[in-house]
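Data availability (excerpt). The following record was deposited with the supplementary files.
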Amino acid sequence: MNILIVGGTGTIGTHLARSLSKQDCRIFLLSRNPKKYHKKFNQNISLISWSTNNSNLLKDIDVVVKLSGESVLKFWTKKIKKKILSSRANITKDLRNFLEINHINPKVFINASAVGYYAKKDAIYNGSVDEFSSSGDTFLADVCKTNEESCDIFTNDGIRVVNLRIGLVLTKEFYNLVKFTPHMGAKNNFFPWIHIDDVVGFIEFSIINDIKGPFNLVAPNPTTHQEFSPMVIPIRFLRNIIPMTEMLLYGYKTIPKRTLESGYKFKFVDVKDAIHSFKK
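Predicted structure:
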């Protein structure tokens, strides 16, 4: 199977590419600066630039995984917010043009979104949400909604589209970064975590199973901020400085209803087990 990963040099993309490359898949990573990451990957993974025009090389791609978009981990000035929001739609249009130029007609298009889709301005989270719940009213919610709607162009082309509403991804690097920080979140709000192995696992599951639409990528056992305190990034001192704390204040009890109904079996359902996996 031939797979194109857009934004494949980041955390999720790197784990995904390395996993797929061990499964008799040919992997192409589409990057703005492929030379920069050349030594990061093995010979089974090919880095290509956005200027590539080689249909003979790429025409047999079966699956496209889109993980890219302007980072939200910045100071949210008006200019940056506009750039973040527009990038979600623009990169999808650019990607479609890239696919057309290289005569790529994928059967599956997998798009990374986020649970921020449900975020609320008042940060008061009562009850729960699942994939059938309506979108929120914050900037982050608008970003996620714009991102998902931009991929409708592929749905209209008859391509099976999967939108991944991803929670906070736990990795060993993340654990090492925040394991000594104190708890600062709203203790009764829920913290939507997922282990990196389950993000990769569900993407691989989505490739080979006939599923489509939105899927919440969060662990099935909801965890509150208080329970998750060893892993929560401190935010109290940032609250009046960086207007991007809604990413950390998000607190809905987010249920992976459609994800579970799809038949996917989570590798990590308990946060203690997830954290322990990084101590090995």
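Summary of structural features: The longest helix spans residues 78-101.
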